[in-house]
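Open question from group meeting: does this chain pack into something compact, or does most of it stay loose? Before anyone orders reagents, we agreed to write out a predicted structure and look at it together. Recording both the input and the output here so the notebook holds the full record.
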Amino acid sequence: MPSPTFQEKNRVPPEVWIGDGLSRAALRPHIQCLQKHRTPVSPFSRGASHASSPALDHRACCNFLTVDRSIPELHAGAVPATYADISLTVSTLILFAHQEHGRSPLTILNSPSLKDAQDTLVKSLESRMIIVIVASCEVHYSGRTGSHLGEGERLIIIKEDGCLLIHRSTDYRPVNWQPGGGIVQAHLSKDRLLVRAVRTNPLESLNISISKIGLLTNFRLLDEAEFHLHASEEDMQKAIVLQPSIIEAGLEVIEYERRVEPGFVDIYGVDRKGNAVVIEIKKDPAGVSAVKQLAEYLKYIQPRPGRKLRPMIVAPGLAKGAQTLLSKMGFEYKQLSLQKCAEVLRRQAISERQQVLKGWLKE
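Structure tokens returned:
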């Protein structure tokens, strides 16, 4: 029995929910327009030319579309047979979000010209919208180091704060990225669309030279939820022991959970100058009580002759009043996020699994 084709594997079932509902009456003009202005499925047509299709004229107050095969026009074959066809059928598709939510329009450009893409990019950057691009491009970075990435199809994401990420087709990590706080610009140069992200502190630039765009979209996200990472002070302690450099370069951990009269010192170590470093760890913003707790421990710790004693609070942040007391007592504060500690532990776990696998393969 022959293998199913791509279209057969991706055929739209009787009911396909893609977003917020849309009435059948409002959907019909869209269906007719889809039928009239069909374009190829793939955003990158290898060896085939893409005819530019007219923009979709009809606009509806909805987030996305609901495709219902019970509508007569669908039975007549008015809508393409695959999800990819539906999502990439017209060159430009603008769907107005629900007016009561006050959401901005969603713009989707399918295989746009570089000029159309530049116009949309400039407006989107000025409006601080999220931008997602599927493009064939090459990338050059200069700054603290230097790198060059040759031509290839990639996913480009520009966030509201100017953060820019370039992803390949595998791996969760971006192959190139630039933090926010800089300037992102887009302009045409001969037959390329150039996107440039520049920061001044430190001075660095990320330059993307785009030859072809398969998909460009912009939108806004409503996200006011707080992020809670389930990690403990013990996890932070383990991360510091495994990689003391996350506190400072040259730090050496001598002992952890060192017993003193009032309790246990989380981390006891020495810096590169031989000074004693006493660390109190807090997974939440450290308050006045944490500073006082560290002060109690110091009564029972004496540095080596000729060496200093460096009391240090390590936490994701400081609560009200803590910074004033730290300065008054001459204590140090090092910010350390739970995410960074989790990443250290994750890398360690991967390394341990790799060692086990190597040992197993040798056997």
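Observations to bring back to the group:
Residues 233-341 form a domain with the Trna Endonuclease; Chain: A, domain 1 fold (CATH 3.40.1350.10).
The chain has three domains: 6-110, 114-219, 233-341.
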